[in-house]
Amino acid sequence: MLLERNREVAATHEPIPLVTELQAQGKMGELTTMVVTCVDPRCIPENYFNLKTGEVFVNRNVGGNIQYAMRDILILNAAFPDSFQEIIVVHHTDCGSLRFKDDGMDKLVKNVIGEAHSAAIDNVAWAGVVNDLEWFRSSPIVPKHMKDKVRGLIFDIQTGKVEEVK
Fold first, then answer.
1. Half-sphere exposure of 151 toward its Cβ, with a 13 Å CA cutoff?
2. 135 in a domain, yes or no?
3. Which residue ranges make up the annotated binding site for Zn(2+)?
4. For 20, 71, 80, 144, which has the most beta carbons within 10 A of its beta carbon?
5. Dihedral sign from CA coordinates of 98, 102, 103, 109
């Protein structure tokens, strides 16, 4: 099904600039924002922020957890030093990962993968935007110049509005 859809898209596809072309044009430095958000297919930041292709980095994971995105944030920060002006963590209403407290999510995951990885599961933070922001700002692995560049938002899937979490 997806390959068939792609054939239709590819028929009218306009080439996307190569990284080398963007670098030659000095446009790689324009990517200054990272959006960390959930994999939920109802919540697409390119839609609710009206983004154009290549306008921001988007990192998606279950729950939009910033800890899961850290590897990518650190790699991009190393590749493009000091490029991030803003890191935006976006969670959304009616998210499956918000239906559980830490212990409930732990139990759910342990039931699926077993007790063998119990210690690793216990170290996962499943909570919301505020916890993500607190973790990011206090983490020793986050470069100091990035700690004050993180913001938290909630996307309401019913209204389409995005509100800042203070």
1. 12
2. yes
3. 38, 40, 92, 95
4. 80
5. positive
Find the helix packing angle between 129-138 and 66-79, rounded to 10°.
40
* Backbone phi, psi, residue 78, to 5°: -70, -40
Question: Is residue 126 in some structural domain?
Answer: yes
Structure tokens at 151: 């913001």
Domain with 82 in it: what CATH number?
3.40.1050.10
Structural domain contains residue 63: yes
For residue 131, give the nearest of 61, 63, 39 by alpha carbon. Answer: 63
* 151 belongs to a structural domain: yes
Q: Supply the range of the domain harboring residue 101.
A: 31-165
Q: What letter represents residue 100's amino acid?
A: F
Residues belonging to the binding site are 38, 40, 92, 95
Asked if 100 and 126 count as a contact pair (C-beta separation under 8 A), the reply is: yes
Token readout for 101 is 């407290």
Q: Which residues pair with 152 in a beta bridge?
A: 89, 165
Per-residue model confidence as pLDDT tens for the chain (166 residues)? 999 999 999 999 999 888 888 878 877 667 789 999 999 999 999 999 999 877 899 999 988 999 999 999 999 888 887 778 899 999 998 887 655 545 555 566 566 666 665 554 444 444 588 889 999 999 999 989 899 999 999 999 999 999 998 7
